[in-house]
Amino acid sequence: xxxxxxGLLLLAILPLQVFAWNWRTRISVSLEDQPLYVYCDHLxxxxxxxxxxxxxxxxxxxxxxxxxxxxxxxxxxxxLFADNGIQYRRIGGLLVLAAKQPFQRTISGYVEDAATGxxxxxATVYAPHLKAGTVTNNYGFYSFTTLRDTLSLFVSYTxxxxxxxxxxxxxxxxxNFKLSPSNTLGEVEVSETLPRLQDQTQMSKVNVNMSQTKTxxxxxxxxxxxxxxxxxxxxxxxMEGTSGIHVRGGSPxxxxxxxxxxxxxxxxxxxxxxxxxxxxxxxxxxxxxxxxPARYGGRLSxxxxxxxxxxxMYNHHGELSIGLLASRMAAEGPIVKGKTSYILTAxxxxxxxxxxxxxxxxxxxxxxxxxxxYFYDANLKINHIFSPKDRLYLSAYxxxxxxxxxxxxxxDSVQGAPKRYHEEMKFRLGWGNQAYALRWNHIFNPQLFSNxxxxxxxxxxxxxxxxxxxxxxxxxxxxxxNAFGRYYSKVDNLGAxxxxxxxxxxxxxxxxxxxGTWHVFRPGITAFNNVSDDQQLADTTYNDQTHGxxxxxxxxxxxxxxxxxxHLNLGVHASAFLVEGRAYTSIQPRLGFRYxxxxxxxxxxxxxxxxxxxxxxxxxxxxxxxxxxxxAATDKVPxxxxxxxxxxxxxTTNDNRYEMSVEGYYKRMENVIQYQEQNADFNSATKSxxxxxxxxxxxxxxxxxxxxKKQDRFKGWIGYTLAWSRRAFPNIxxxxxxxxxxxxxxxxxxxxxxxxxxRWEVSAQWQYASGLPLTxxxxxxxxxxxxxxxxxxxxxxxxxxxxxxxxDQYTVRMHDVHRLDLGATYTxxxxxxRYMLSFGLYNTYNRKNPFFYYYKHNPDSQKRELTMLxxxxxxxxxxxxxxx
Length: 884
Hints:
It is a single chain. By secondary structure, this protein is mostly beta strands. The chain folds into three domains: 17-99, Phage tail protein beta-alpha-beta fold (3-Layer(bab) Sandwich); 104-195, Immunoglobulin-like (Sandwich), CATH 2.60.40; 263-329 and 340-775 and 810-883, TonB-dependent receptor, beta-barrel domain (Maltoporin, Chain A, Beta Barrel), CATH 2.40.170.20. The chain is 6% helix and 56% strand. The strands form twelve sheets. The chain has a 22-stranded antiparallel barrel. Strands 14-21-22-17-18 form a five-stranded mixed sheet. Its main location: membrane. It comes from Chitinophaga caseinilytica.
């Protein structure tokens, strides 16, 4: 009894209703816009239901309205807590509240242009209350795993009106977002939804704005995406007026240029003045100067990933442009509305037609002479939707350059007895690219996306000449000379790859895949035939053989958000190259790291290893002809390797108007090659080319600074580069380190655009670059030859030919380069068409910048003099375009 009485007394003093409530207790509540803790107090005071919870664990500050009458307690509690992330359970007489384990669901799909159905690359999908989001991949696909209580998402993309999308369903689903283009400047995006530079793990990457590319100053009326890339820090354009790119001291062959995932080996037209990429068909361009994602491999210096437009799914459009140098057209529209679309572009120059008479006179081609210099290219892409989970893309590119000089004249001999001769010379130079890709996108589930690609690419280069000579007034003795030569190079690629994009949650984005490529090289053939008076025939052919190699690769990368202030990108690219019974292998780790410093400055670091299995044989002498030859690694010439370490700071201002970044990098290269002789000629492209090159090492390092304004009517950027590029070879320059031929110490680029009202946009670009290194001979001697029966060369006395002697490499530098370009575009929108009139002024103050240097014989001093050739003076341009 002594043990029982205290318990009975305790029961007597407790309210009887504490143990009287159950799940069927009837509840009546009528409260409006009150916090959850008010409902808990009401139930405890009115019905004696005690609650137990911690305010650090359970959030009872959320407000809601509830009006119920005579409803069971369990149903009331479900209405209060089920949608607020709170779970409840009874323990003894207490109702214990705890945070509900979050149920997740995955929302995935495509972000596209509402008017055309064009997929948008790099669009942002963002959950504001979670402060988390994701971006679309290269096919416009996104996958975002979030809490089931996420009520809305923000979707934004540069140049489009942002939208807030309610998400009512609580299960995983596929949801496509359609954004409408912004018609009013200044209301383009919601600032909090834009991806900021400091939030990205990726460094050394530049996204090229195509709309800004089209408004930049143009050369001869043609907009060019590679010229926009040249204006970025760390990227050099090489010789004046060319559109090639040299990234962080690397050579042209070290750039991987992809068009819809297919490699393009030569990216320039018209001796490098224009690129092969028609701006009318380009949707997105990404440049990677370092910190290469693991999915890319095969080059040392850069990756330029270019995506073509898909074509309008709903309406037909066309565009026609006429300029001083070239005309182009574009057409796009649905084949099956909402299911299949196409886009077709084509362009051709007509400089040869305009300059025919002037070229004949300047080159002394004779009355029957001919001069042709033109290029053309065309793009086609077809896009078909099989189902919400399956899409097929077919893309094709073809382009070609041609130069023909035909000299045909009759002249009198300058030697001996008077004779009349007929001389005919024909020189043809041509090169071209082809690129084809078939791609299949498939969504396995809301978190897993795949892309399968089969592609083919080809680059070919061809030079041939014919020389015919005969005496006209010696009927008994026919003096004949008939020579023919041909030199060409060709590379073919056939590849297949599969890529997976797996996004289990916003903190992890995983990519993995495999690729195989079959390379076929024909590095050059030279053939000569000579038929003279004695009817002797000489026929010489070099290197008439084909070399092939197979490149295989696997990759995996994981973009991991460790916490808000720390991101990590880990990856590995494993590859192998099988050639002539030899197997080269390479494991290439990739690391990217980002840490958020105070005041939202991001500290970024990257380390990458790259391997390149193909080489480019390049003439060391200054030349503007594309006579370089692609060859594969062999037993004697191994693949190139590079390691690059980069460290930088980046920040986007809170209003998203300005971006600032500074990067320092150091790159070390192994097994780079160079001809041993300074002036390697066509005959170097023989089967013994391995014996004519030397293998060495390279280094490049420097600092890049970029300040960019990306919004409002006034936009532009300022970029500065301080850089060094070095090479060392055992048998060149006595083994000492020397500056590489693409070593530029300083480069400064200023690009500005200003919107004037609704119709005018003006732009200016000013650039400065230090001079490139140049190798000059230290001596020369005369090589005595047999006198020619033809007219002697004007520079030299008959029977002599100077032979240069070289010692040290790149001992002097060319003149510095600087230039101001101006542009203006007038746009007028009509009901069914938009008209654009573009004006340009290239090299506004007529600066004579060096194209290349050569020695020229001075007849007055009887000495050879170093002469600078400058080919691009001040050049005005105008072009007219209509889009309908």
